[in-house]
Amino acid sequence: MPQVVLKLPASTLEKMKNHYHSQLKNPPQNAIFAAKTNACTITAYRSGKVLFQGKSPESESEQWGKPDSASLKSNSNSKQPHAFHPPESIFTSSHIGSDEAGTGDYFGPITVAAAYVTKEQVHTLKAIGVKDSKHLSDRQIRDLAKSIVELKIPYSLLRLPNKKYNQWQRKGWSQGKMKTILHHQALDKLLQKISPEKPDGIVIDQFSQPEVYQKHLRSEKLHLQPNVYFMTKAESYSIAVAAGSIIARSAFVKAMDQIEMDTGLSIPKGASAKVDQAAAQVIKHYGEDKLEEIAKVHFANTQKAKKF
User: Which keywords does UniProt give here (predicted)?
Assistant: First the structure.
């Protein structure tokens, strides 16, 4: 039976437990929780390891992280880098990078951005402090996003509104499929924008195995663009991915600020107990339907908020 093993931090395990709240089952000994979906059974252990086992484990695991290659039991060659791993030379050449924000947050949209950085601009962006947005404050992200735009770095930005997100989720789309389609559209728009110039390659911050990404594309009759590479933690290597990450994160932060302005309530990021309380306040002041417009309602936070 196919299986995937991920090694995840405690914070992600808590998000997963919330996410699968309605699908939990009795966990085995030494497990934190267990859940069963249409795709597979998920078991999370205190060591941080999470086992996805069933007919389609990758379709479920892709939204939480990339498996350690040694953990892919169904592939005897899994210790070798996949065929879509980028060559080292791509990071100093003219290339496109794409990344997303907002996928693990209950409130706010998913944002995806792609940026095109020429080899002459690589050092300029590094010099102004462009790096992985996870290591930057919201203020730094806003300032750097503004600087990237002022430097006339070509980019494309897509926002998936919560209402559309909830519709797609009810159609049976996983977050992995949503992100795939958004990345693909963002890349298409940017390639059109810079045409006839062609990048030496495209680096996507990997959130699923390349074959799963392509499967999602085929399901919508789409095809992978030429010279696409996938890499985990790509924003630490590719300045174009880092720029895309900052633009996507900046758009997400702005969207969260707008939700706070619209509701007059404090709207926290993430999916913690504070988020449960904020969702309860939204229901109290605006009714449950409001969550459809500003939240990913299939997260367990919705059910928890109703109990307040």
Answer: Cytoplasm, Endonuclease, Hydrolase, Magnesium, Metal-binding, Nuclease
CA distance 71 to 148: 39
Please state, in angstroms and rounded to a whole number, the distance separating the CA atoms of residues 252 and 66: 23
Measured between alpha carbons, how far is 209 from 218 in angstroms, rounded to an integer?
Answer: 14
Report whether 114 contacts 185 (CB < 8 A): no
Q: What is the pTM of this model?
A: 0.78
> How deeply is 242 buried, as exposed, middle or buried, from its count of CB atoms within 10 A (0-12, 13-18, 19+)?
buried
Residue 29 in tokens: 């000994």
Q: Which burial class, exposed, middle or buried, applies to 15 when counting CB atoms under 10 A from its CB (0-12, 13-18, 19+)?
A: buried
Asked whether 220 and 183 are in contact (CB, 8 A), the reply is no
Q: Is the dihedral of CA 26, 106, 176, 205 positive or negative?
A: negative
Identify the CA nearest to 121 among candidates 158, 95, 85, 89: 95
Sheet with 24-25, side-by-side order of all strands: 3-7, 49-53, 41-45, 31-36, 24-25
Q: How many CB atoms sit inside 10 A of residue 289's CB?
A: 8
Q: How many residues does the chain have?
A: 308
Q: Which residues contact 255 (CB under 8 A, 6 or more apart)?
A: 102, 108, 109, 111, 159
pLDDT along the chain (308 residues), means of 10: 85 90 86 89 89 85 72 42 89 97 96 97 93 87 96 98 97 95 98 97 95 96 96 95 97 97 97 96 97 96 94
R_g of the chain, CA atoms, integer Å: 20
| Best CA proximity match to 19, nearest among 64, 65, 57 | 64
- Which residues of 177-251 form beta strands (DSSP E)? 201-205, 228-231
Annotation: binding site: 99-100, 205
Map residue 280 onto helix, strand or coil.
helix
Q: How far is the C-alpha of 34 from the C-alpha of 25, rounded, in Å?
A: 6
